[in-house]
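Usage

Read records sequentially. Each one opens with the input sequence:
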Amino acid sequence: MNMQSQLWKMILIVAVPPMIIIIAIAFIGIGSALQYHAILNNVTTASDFNQNFKDDIDLKMYYYVINSQYSEGLPIKEVQSAEAIALKLFDTTTENDSLRAISSVLNLCRNLEEKIQQIAQTKEYDSRMEQLENNIYILTDLIQRYMYNYLYYEAAHLNALQSTMITNMIVIICIVVVLSLVLLYFLLSK
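and closes with the structure output:
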C-alpha cells in the first residue's frame, strides 16, 4: 500500500464514525423535538378550552330555563367552540389515554348540544328544570373532567418524553466516548 491510500484509510477511519454519530444525534434530536413540539402544542390548544366552561354553560342554561332577563339565549356557540378545540386535539393526539379522554369530550359535547336543543323544544318549566339538572349539569361536569384528564395525560406524556430524551442523550454520549476510545486505541496501536 502506498502512502496516499494509507492516508485515505486513516481519514475514513477517523472521519466516518464521528459523521455517523453526528447524523444519528441529529435525527434523534430532531425526532424528539418534533414529538415534544406536537405534545406541547396540544397542551397549549387544550388551554384554550374555557376553564369556566361548566360554570358558564350551567349559568346560561339556568337563565334560559327560568326565562330570566339575564338570559343570552342558548349557549350553542360555546359548546361548538369546545367541540372544535376537542376535534383539533383529537386529530393531533397520539397517546391512547389522551385519545380516550378527548374522544369522550367530543362525544359529550355532541350529546350536550342535543340536550340543549331538547330543552329548547320543551315548554313545561318542571321538565326543563329536570333536564337541566339531570342532563346539562352532569354533561358539563363530565366534559370539564375529561378535559382535565386529557391535560393530565398529555403533561405526563410530555414528562416521559423529556426523560426519554435525556436518557437517549446520555446513552449517545457514552457511545461516543467508547467509540472515541476504541478509535484512539486503534490509531495508537499501529
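Summary fields computed downstream for this record:
- The CA atoms of residues 183 and 189 lie 10 Å apart.
- The chain has one domain: 42-189.
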